[in-house]
Every structure is written in structure tokens, then in C-alpha cells.
Amino acid sequence: MTRSAQETFFRAFHASHPAATSRIFSGGQNTGGRSSYELLRDEIAGAGRVLDLACGDGFLLDLLAAAGHQAVGLDLSSTDLALAKQRSATVVEGRAQQLPFADHAFDAGVSHMAFMLMTDIDQVAAELARVLRPGGQLSLVLSGTSGTADRGEARTLFGKLLRETLSEVPAEQRLSPLGDKRTRTRAGLDEILGAAGFGPVQWRTEEIDFSGSLDQVWDFVSSVYNLFPLSAAASSALKTAFYTEAPALARPDGRIPLVFPIHLASTRTVHKGQ
Ligand SMILES: C[S@@+](CC[C@H](N)C(=O)[O-])C[C@H]1O[C@@H](n2cnc3c(N)ncnc32)[C@H](O)[C@@H]1O
Predict the structure, then answer these.
(1) Which amino acid residue places its CA nearest to atom 15 of ligand 1?
(2) pLDDT of amino acid 5
(3) Is the separation of the CB atoms in 102 and 131 below 8 Å?
(4) Would the CB of 50 count as within 6 Å of ligand 1?
């Protein structure tokens, strides 16, 4: 997908699914009881001025403000930014590839579930390096993959059913892959961020638990971008297949397991002269 086609897609998706990401992700927890937003907030403890890149509806901006940071958000979805403004967050409409901020304007940058979706990622990294102060921290929450190994949980099942559905629909109902593959590995991120002036990436993986009722796990898995271009008939057939197969995964307490791995990646801009 071209850059502008992808950005048009994001605007359209988020206009029809306001606050889609925070509604889903605020409900998950790692084994220590933290959501992926809280894990990201905790990564940059102590930083003063913080940029939340691709802030969506501002859920993380609220957490950052409550923790005492001066947080500013940027996103290209005017729908989600309107929701962020209702939270009294400071937000700017714009593109990550061309940040409307002065050099060294921030002590830290964060981005939750967005960096791996962006086009021209080398340009985004260069812009982040420019707007962070020397030694400023960048921390990212990136989507991990469940893979195809059957772990008896809902996301793997959904992935299998989605692949089956996509193999049967016309090409125009299939979303082209979003983002840059290198963002999916530590080595790839080192390549992107190193070239932009960041030091080596610290990387860890956390499993976030979104287990719940059948309706709750469907709500989670069906929020993916890939469902948006599907016809109503194909979506409905996928839902029927999921509702048929997922109950067999339920634990004795009736909850259906759903595990979403995330990567937490952190680095700092390298001081000039180092
Ligand atoms: C999955 S949502 C995550 C939103 C928010 N960070 C959260 O986790 O609640 C991805 C966000 O990235 C934004 N986005 C994608 N490409 C962008 C770009 N080039 N510049 C700014 N925002 C972008 C979308 O508009 C969308 O709000």
C-alpha cells in the first residue's frame, strides 16, 4: 500500500472504530497485573517532557499526566484526537514522518502499538531522534506474534480462521501488510534506530492476558485492521466459525484463554561525540 493509501485507511478505520485500541488493550494484564500502557509508562519514569507518538484517543496520555509527565500526543486520526481532547490531553494532528516539533523538544518518546504499522519507518526514526534531547529515551510497545503453534488459546484459533477466510475472498478484501517487517525483531529495530542515531535496543517480551467470555475474546480478536476490508458476508462467516470452535478452548471456570505477546523496546539517542 502506498503511504497515502495507508494513512487514508487508518483515518477511515479509526473514524468508524473510535478508541478501538484503548478499549481493548486497557483490559489486559501481564502476570504482575500491569496493562501494556502501564508497562510503557513505567519504562520512562522520571522523564519530564514526553511525546506519545500515534497517541490515538489519549488513554496513555492520561496515565502519563497522572504520573507527573508533561505529555503531548500526535496522531493522524482526527476522530481519536477529538476524544483525547475531551480528556484535556495536549494533542496535535500530524504525521510521524514529519513531526511539527522543535529539535530536542522532548526528554522521552513513547509509542504504544503503532510504530510497527508505519510506512517510511526510517524517516519516523530520524524525526524521533531529532525531537528528543541528546540522551533522551525512546520506548515502544510493539505487537508480538502468536505464531501458528497451537497453544489452545483464542488468538491462535482466530489467526487460523482468518487465514482460511482470507484465502477465499477476492484480493480487494485483503489488507496489504502494514508497516516495516524489521520492527518485529530486535535486530531489525537496531538497524532502523541505530541508523537514526539511537543506541542499542533493550528488548523484552511480555505476555498480556485478555482471557474472558466468548463475546469478550471475539471483541478483542475482531478489532484487527484485517477485518475492515472484508465483506459483511465474509466477516459474518468468520464470526460464526469462531463462535463454533472457540467454546472448546474454555477453561473449567468458563473463560476462554487469549494471550497477546508484546515486545517492550527501549533505547536512547546517542550523545553527539560518542
Ligand atoms: C493501533 S492504534 C494505537 C493508538 C494508541 N497508541 C493506543 O495504543 O491506544 C495505531 C495508531 O497509529 C496512528 N498512526 C498510524 N500511522 C501514523 C502516522 N504515520 N503518523 C501518526 N499516526 C499514525 C493511527 O492513526 C492510530 O491511532
Answers:
(1) 118
(2) 86
(3) yes
(4) no
Query: Which tens digits make up the pLDDT trace of 136-149?
Result: 999 999 998 766 66
Domain count, the chain: 1
**Residue 98, in any domain of the structure:** yes
Question: Is the shortest distance between the CB of 21 and ligand 1 below 6 Å?
Answer: yes
C-alpha of residue 250 to centroid of ligand 1, in Å: 33
Q: State if pTM tops 0.90.
A: yes
**Alpha carbon distance 47, 66 (integer Å):** 13
56-82: pLDDT as tens digits: 999 999 999 999 999 999 999 999 999
The position carrying cell 520506548 is 139
CATH number reported for the structural domain that contains residue 18 in this entry = 3.40.50.150
Q: Are strands 202-209 and 259-268 parallel, antiparallel or unpaired?
A: antiparallel
Distance of CA 238 from the midpoint of ligand 1 (Å): 26
Q: Which ligand 1 atom is the nearest neighbour of the CA of 37?
A: 8
